[in-house]
Design a protein that fits this description.
Layout lengths: L1 E6 L7 H12 L5 E7 L5 H9 L5 E3 L7 H14 L4 E6 L18 E6 L7 H14 L2 E4 L2 H8 L1 H5 L4 E2 L13 H10 L7 E6 L8 H14 L3 E6 L5 H10 L6 E5 L4 H7 L2 E4 L8 H8 L4 E4 L12 E4 L5 H14 L6 H7 L4 H15 L1
Parallel strand pairs: 1-2, 1-4, 2-3, 4-5, 5-6, 6-7, 8-9, 8-11, 9-10, 11-12, 12-13
Length: 366
């Protein structure tokens, strides 16, 4: 049996967390023992998955920002008492390497650095730790070429000396269902004829929620029978709630918080709005396309999300009117009665296929 330590899960509901728990669920527990090292409480839905599948354990240590000395004691103690064949380090920035740094002093454990994003605000610390982790890593993985270049450097991305690992999902769960669409709309108090614009993202700078609000404000001014659904939590949520009030949109913008029914909520949307400042290959864009949901995204999002013809791009610098026109055009031509999840399966985005690839790569490292 291969012993794997997964590192990189946070307390939110995001792409890294979803990917790792889905992977854990699909790996054969007779072949892989996967444990999780975390520095904050993870979401209940992920805890439930870890407990219900396999035999994985969760180890919690003190976060470096919370108490540096306690973190140092915890991390050294953990790695001195627990040995693994492989550490699967999932990152959006190389500074997260700090949570596995004790393996610098031994070579038996294989290190996989898995990049899930395309940019970060902490550029200096990222570049500093990138040199260290690139020296120590035994395998470089990424969800896209943008994520690879950010994490490992241009030469690694250009020379393809990394492994492209698709963000696999349980595709069948996302295929469009009119019954689910009607049920979720009823749950949220939304009529069947209203246009629903949606976003599923952390309330952080990268996701550009202020642009989401301003674009929806423009669209709502020409189509008052429209609603904006926002799924997620984050540091900027309160400021976005204030912006919604300033724009007099409180009655038509719903904050849904953290949810574990994203596959069903996507059925209620008519358009997915993603004006991110930067992205690698957002997990939710795969989920949206599996649900045959059109997306309006910024030109700063990796083109590797273009898995179907459902992706519409607008320049991030374009005014809100152009974004609103894109939404209007999509609503008029949208057809949800498609089987785009089958296209994604053919392109390797089924989590069962991803898990098989990951298992083979684990085995090849030993």
């Amino acid at each position: 049996m291969i012993k794997v330590l997964a590192v990189g899960m946070t307390g939110g509901i995001g792409g890294v967390e979803t990917f790792m728990t889905n992977l854990y669920k699909h790996l054969d527990s007779k072949e892989v023992q996967m444990d999780f090292l975390v520095h904050e409480k993870i979401a209940d839905s992920y805890l439930k998955t870890i407990r219900n599948y396999g035999n994985g354990r969760i180890y919690k240590i003190t976060g470096i920002k919370k108490n540096f000395l306690k973190y140092l004691v915890d991390i050294i103690s953990f790695f001195s008492h627990n040995k693994y064949d492989i550490i699967h380090l999932n990152e959006c920035g190389a500074s997260y390497f700090i949570y596995v740094f004790p393996i610098l002093f031994e070579r038996k454990t294989k290190l996989i650095v898995h990049s899930h994003n395309g940019d970060s605000a902490h550029v200096f610390s990222h570049k500093l730790f990138r040199k260290i982790q690139n020296y120590r890593t035994d395998a470089m993985w990424a969800c896209s070429d943008v994520a690879a270049q950010w994490m490992f450097g241009k030469s690694v991305a250009d020379n393809r000396t990394y492994s492209l690992i698709h963000n696999g999902i349980d595709l069948d769960k996302y295929s469009f269902s009119l019954d689910i669409r009607n049920r979720k709309r009823k749950e949220f108090g939304i009529s069947s004829h209203s246009v629903v614009v949606g976003s599923i993202a952390r309330f952080e700078h990268q996701k550009n929620h202020s642009k989401i609000i301003s674009v929806f404000n423009e669209y709502h001014s020409v189509n008052p029978d429209s609603v904006l659904l926002l799924v997620g939590e984050g540091h900027l949520k309160q400021s976005i709630e204030s912006l919604v009030e300033e724009c007099n949109l409180k009655e038509c913008v719903k904050f849904l918080g953290i949810r574990n029914d994203v596959n069903e909520i996507l059925q209620a949307f008519d358009v997915f709005l993603l004006p991110s400042l930067y992205e690698g290959l957002p997990f939710v864009t795969v989920e949206a396309q599996a649900a045959s949901l059109p997306l309006v995204v910024s030109n700063t999002v990796s083109k590797q999300i273009d898995l179907t013809d459902l992706v519409y791009r607008v320049d991030l610098e374009d005014d809100d009117n152009k974004w609103a026109l894109a939404i209007s055009s999509i609503v008029l031509s949208s057809d949800r009665n498609r089987n785009d999840y089958l296209i994604l399966k053919d392109k390797g985005y089924d989590m069962g296929d991803t898990a098989n690839i990951v298992l083979k790569k684990y085995e090849s490292l030993l």
